[in-house]
Specification:
4-stranded antiparallel beta sheet; 40% helix; 10% strand; elongated; UBQ-conjugating_enzyme/RWD; RWDD4; RWD domain-containing protein 4 isoform X3; RWD_dom
C-alpha cells in the first residue's frame, strides 16, 4: 500500500474518531492540532502533527509552536521552553516505536494519558496576581500617613531607633530602599534558561 493510500485511510479514521471533539482541529488533510487539557486549564497545551509526503514510513513533523502555547508570563518563559522540549522529546520516542504505522491518533492519546507527567515541572504564574506578590521587596515597617489623624500608632523605643537608622536627618528614606533585587531575580530565573535564551539576553 502506498503512503498516499495509508494517509487517506488514516485521515478518514481521524475524522470519524474526533467528530464533534472540540479539542481536535484539522488544519489541512495532512496537518492536525489537538489541545491537551480543558479550556482554562493553565497546564493545557497544543500539539500539531503534520505528515510528510512519505509518512508513515517516515516520521511526522511534531510542533508546539502554536500561539496557544505562548500564553505564559516572562518569569516562567525559560522554564516553559524546557518543558516544551521535554514533551517533544518524549513524543519523538513514541514516533520511533510506531514508525511505519498510522500514529497520529496514538500520539494524541499518548499525550492525553501522560499530561500530568509531561507538565509536572511546569508551574504557571497566574497573570491576575500582581507582580509585587511574585517578587518580594523588603520595605520598612512604616505605614503611609493618613489624612485622618484620629489615632497615631505608638512605636516602642526600639522601633523608633530602627526607623531612625533607616532614614536620614530629614526623616526621608534613602534612595533605592524599594528597589527590586535584580541580581537575586536573575539567579532564580537563569538556571532554568536554555543557552540560546542566555545568549539572547546578553546581546
Amino acid at each position: 500500500m502506498s503512503a498516499n493510500e495509508d494517509q487517506e485511510m488514516e485521515l478518514e479514521a481521524l475524522r470519524s474518531i474526533y467528530e464533534g471533539d472540540e479539542s481536535f482541529r484539522e488544519l489541512s488533510p495532512v496537518s492536525f492540532q489537538y489541545r491537551i487539557g480543558e479550556n482554562g486549564d493553565p497546564k493545557a497545551f497544543l500539539i500539531e502533527i503534520s505528515w510528510t509526503e512519505t509518512y508513515p514510513q517516515t516520521p511526522p513533523i511534531i510542533s508546539m509552536n502554536a500561539f496557544f502555547n505562548n500564553t505564559i508570563v516572562f518569569l516562567v518563559r525559560c522554564r516553559s521552553s524546557a518543558v516544551k522540549q521535554s514533551i517533544l522529546a518524549k513524543l519523538q520516542e513514541a514516533v520511533e516505536i510506531h514508525l511505519g504505522t498510522a500514529m497520529t491518533y496514538t500520539l494524541f492519546e499518548y499525550a492525553k494519558d501522560n499530561k500530568e507527567q509531561f507538565m509536572e515541572n511546569h508551574h504557571p504564574i497566574n497573570s491576575t496576581i500582581p507582580i509585587s506578590s511574585i517578587i518580594s521587596v523588603e520595605t520598612p515597617n512604616t505605614a503611609p500617613s493618613s489624612k485622618k489623624k484620629d489615632k497615631k500608632e505608638q512605636l516602642s523605643k526600639a522601633q523608633k531607633r530602627k526607623l531612625a537608622d533607616k532614614t536620614d536627618h530629614k526623616g526621608q528614606l534613602p534612595r533605592g530602599w524599594n528597589w527590586v533585587d535584580v541580581v537575586k531575580m536573575y539567579r532564580l530565573v537563569i538556571p532554568h534558561c536554555p543557552r540560546s535564551w542566555l545568549s539572547a539576553m546578553v546581546t
